[in-house]
Oxidoreductase (Spirosoma montaniterrae), 368 residues
Amino acid sequence: MINIAIVGLGFGAEFIPIYQRHPNANMYAICQRNVDKLNRIGDTFGIDKRYSSYDELLEDPAVDAVHINSPIPNHAEQSLKALRAGKHVACTVPMATTVEECAEIVRATRETGKKYMMMETVVYSREFLFVKELYETGQLGKVQFLKASHQQDMDGWPDYWPGLPPMHYATHCVGPVAGLLRLQADYVSCFGSGTIRDELARIHNSPFAVESAHIKFKDSDLSAYVYRSLFDVARQYRESFEVYGDKKSFEWQLIEEEQPVIHTAKKPEPEIPEKVTVPDYAHLLPAEIQRFTTKGVYDADESQHLSFTQGGGHGGSHPHMVHEFLSAIVEDRDPFPNAAQSANWTSVGILAHESALRGGEIMKLPAF
């Protein structure tokens, strides 16, 4: 049994009942600076151990692992503190805000022997698991190209989001194109397009409405194309990825409620495309948490977190991520993605934005 502490109780509260039901977890403690919210969540879920100070939480020897759901600017600092305090770390995306911080987290995992997992939802979504099954069973054939997008209107989101460079939050589209074949990004080139409002652009000195990047993978003949937008672009929320093989290809639907399409080679032209219903993959999970692939943790509509409702429930990924993190600790193996993979995916976005500012200059990824 792993004693889990959840840090940050907005989006983070979504995970409490999953840990409470997982056979290898003890949902031990919660941490939130706002004491009223801390107590409200603690009372709702029956959690007695509560901390309003992160440093005090880390001093508790009973805590085995922390699941960090704090604002983006805090991810690297809190992950490093936890690893150096002897705790395993799961952290929501992105890993960090600089390449140097990513490298420091990787070093800390090697120095401490503790596990680090970036909780990238897309690589545990039912759509990704479906395409992964197509690939592993040979139905795609030789993969020839990968593509992904993440477009979202983030007007009205809290403090640290306004004006954020699109590629600084790129793991939802980098993760699936790198993760399907377990590829390592080698270098990236990115262009900015359009402009956002001046009051947003000046916050991060980032003018671009859209950033689009090509990624070249190390020791592979493959490359991928990813694009992102956060402000001043008319588009329904879309996290998509597409994979093109020589036997079959998978294309994401254009509108959320529609179906993805499988293209099969060498059929008569009108028969090549076929709409498919992506199955759920709850059967891969312990019975105790299978319900959470299709049902939100918060049952009341007014209680659901914006990232969950706007993101379509993250494709049923939450219980899969929890299970992977806990299993990696119990089995003493690296989780997927591990620290080095997480650093690679996160740094693609950081360096892609740098490339866009330099007019598309090729930026080499460090070897983590």
Residues 299-303, 305-312 have pLDDT under 50 and may be disordered. The two ends are 31 Å apart (CA to CA). The first strand starts at residue 2 and ends at 7.
